Amino acid sequence: MTENREPEHFVPEAEPAEALAVFGQQIDQARAFFDLLVRDGDLLGLVGPRELPKLWSRHILNSAAVAELVEPGQLVADVGSGAGFPGIPMAILKPDTQFVLIEPMERRANWLADVVVPGLGLKNVEVLRGRAEEAPLRNYDVVTARAVSALPKLLRMLVPLAVAGGQILALKGSKAQDEIDESKPLAKKLKLDTFEIVTVGQNLLSDPTTVVRVRLL
């Protein structure tokens, strides 16, 4: 006899005090983004229900912290943006920086372009549906990616998008150094200059973000 179980119910994470510290005057936009993710995330396959209890800390704030590595006036490509990570939180914090969100999946790209960007009033964000290899612009100062691929494959994908002297910012976890070691044989072919593990958000977040920063020649 099969036991009937009640479906699991996941409660969205309450806004942590860190959110206001990170977003400051842009907190209302961050809250609106959170609300859109809670409303549409599971239905559109953007964010799984199990992610709701950590939506602020693991996703929104984790992404926002990367903004400290971007300079005003730069052009940033966020590849495989998905539900808008890390691009949307970064764009909220950096209204004087231009972001292009590149997402191959139609429903996600449409959600970003038709719901998120106009809903949040983000005038510094453009959405392109397609793969990185299909992006028409290849002159980005910074290229970001989160949960897209292992670093060696990721670099082959992202480096052609960046200008000479640009940088790749890949959000990574505890195995960041291992991924760097696996990527170093590509340095000459891809014209990579330096690899660096950077921890961002240390002064504001209880769980700072680990970023692999790769500078190009």
Tell me what the structure shows:
The protein is an alpha/beta fold and 217 residues long. The protein has one domain (65-216): Rossmann fold. The protein has helices spanning 17-23, 27-40, 55-64, 87-93, 106-120, 151-158, 176-183, 187-190; strands spanning 75-79, 98-103, 125-129, 140-146, 162-172, 192-200, 209-216. A seven-stranded mixed beta sheet has the order 3-2-1-4-5-7-6, with helices on both faces. β6 (192-200) and β7 form a beta hairpin. α2 runs antiparallel to α5 (106-120) and α3 (55-64) crosses α4 (87-93).
Looking at this protein, list some descriptive labels.
217 residues, alpha/beta, Rossmann fold, 7-stranded mixed beta sheet, 8 helices, 7 strands
Entry summary:
With 217 residues, this protein is an alpha/beta fold.
Q: What is the fold named in CATH at topology level?
A: Rossmann fold
Give the % helix.
25-40%
**Beta-strand content estimate:** 15-25%
- The oligomeric status of these chains comes to single chain
Order of helices and strands: HHHEHEHEEHEHHEE
Lateral arrangement of strands in the main beta sheet: 3-2-1-4-5-7-6
List unreliable stretches of 5+ residues.
none
Distance between the termini: 65 Å
Class computed from helices, strands and strand pairing: alpha/beta
Assign an overall shape: globular
Domains, number: 1
* Beta-strand segment tally: 7
Q: Provide mean pLDDT, rounded.
A: 93
The level 1 CATH classification is Alpha Beta
Give the second-level CATH assignment, the architecture: 3-Layer(aba) Sandwich
CATH H level, superfamily name: Vaccinia Virus protein VP39
The largest pleated sheet is described as: 7 strands, mixed
